[in-house]
Amino acid sequence: MKYCPHCAAPLSTSAIDGIERLACGAGCGYVFWNNPVPVVAALVQYRGGVLLARNAAWPSGKFSLITGFLERGESPEEGILREVHEELGLSGSIARFIGYYPFHPQNQLILAFDVLAEGEVSLSPELLEYRVIAPEKLKAWDFGTGFAVRDWLAIRAA
User: Which GO terms describe its molecular function (predicted)?
Assistant: First the structure.
């Protein structure tokens, strides 16, 4: 951002609460806080396994949980069930909340849910392919939604 969305004056860097932030140089009071964006994620349990999908923009062999942005006016639970339906064509129900995970590279806060899904998969244009992995063969990765997989595996083993 270069200009204030309230008065169109140039933004400048100011120390606010001990942190350098962009703020309105004309003094209208606007501060660009750059708060994290909420993202919902689903560990989709489907036909005895965990469904992972590959985004159309990702390289071959890279799969992850189903994710999407939380929309205005919806709860995280509503948001993730909407995403599962939009991206996979499946109906789902929430088994449990897995946890929340900061994803600093994208300035996001991931809210992850364990979702039980049914129906026939119909991929959205955002996704190229999917795999259903047996839970005992599922391995967590060390960033983003991989931490939710790690925690889900721990819950399952307990």
Answer: metal ion binding; NADH pyrophosphatase activity
